[in-house]
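Notes from hallway chat w/ T.B., transcribed later so I don't forget. T.B. wanted the structure written out for a chain they're using in a teaching module, and asked if we could keep both sequence and structure tokens in one place. Agreed to drop them here.
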Amino acid sequence: MKKFSTIASIFAVSLPLISTGALAAGGQATTAQAEVVASKTKCEFLPEAPDKHVVVKGDTLWGISSMFLKNPWCWPVVWGMNQEDIKNPHWIYPGQIVYFDRVNGRLRLGNPGGVPTVKWNPKSRVQGLGENAIPAIPASVIEPFLSQPLILEDNDLAVAPRIIATKEGRVNLGLYEQAYVRGELDGGTSFQVFRPGKPLHDPVTKAIIAYEAEYLGTVKLEREGNDESDVHTFSVVRSKQEMAVGDRLMPIPPSPILSYVPHPPKEEVDARIVSVYGGVGSAGQNQIVAINRGKNDGLNLGTVLTLYNYGRVIQDKTDANKSIKLPDEPIGELFIFRVFSNISYGLIMQVKDIVKVGDAAKSPR
């Protein structure tokens, strides 16, 4: 993971203002991709932006950006970050200061104390994940969703190891209780347990595009089956809900990286809300929704989309009751943090109305 070094030097970051089709204040994007993205977006500073902001623990890159920019997700665009930077974002730390140079229309990052700043060189990077670095978005909101494969395409649970019995014939399993499992473990010893979930239907085509499994907890292998028996013994080490015969095991995925740089999609995206996590019909700020677009549509971690209330169809009584679709109304922003082939999970960052199943999520304008 790339970050700003705070040892023996300061990396000053110049963020030139980029408007539609042009680079202002003499700034230049470092890649062709940034130029293409910039041509499709408009990144402007707020008229009431402060002169500076001292970074404190609990800040997020999104929150700091919202103090200076009309569109908080815009800062990687004005920064001129390329696709590799987006995959491995830079970090900033409590105690550093974000300065607003109003004369030149730039933001600068530095340390207090009067140490001269130097221009940030994208080739001078320090590897490693800083413990105290601030995240792009509130990590605590999405952490539970990062290690749980909520979306299972092609119903992968059908071939996963399964609980076939409980000790002493109990109906449900709780913490520290034992479960008997059959199926290929492929060398794994720790698994998450899921219950086959409901199919998710595309709001437009009505086709099943994925299955949303219900996460129940975590089990650990105690004793592997031998040649005489292919039954494995597991114990429950974490329990969110009670487990039962028929529930399925999935390997625990690697620990995810929690910093995603916000950026617009490279291609035009016109998605619809498939579901609100938790089985309810509507959502608000800091809630999780799934959309009917994923890796196959060019989405990746950190993609930002604009949320719209999908315009309803009405009968125009002034024109012989002709059916007319009302315009989609922008209501907020969605930050994509988990991506599958044909579906993605997003965190609602800012919203001024409720988000409903069937509402739209599109490329920012």
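Follow-up for T.B.: The longest strand covers residues 208-223. Might be a good example for the class.
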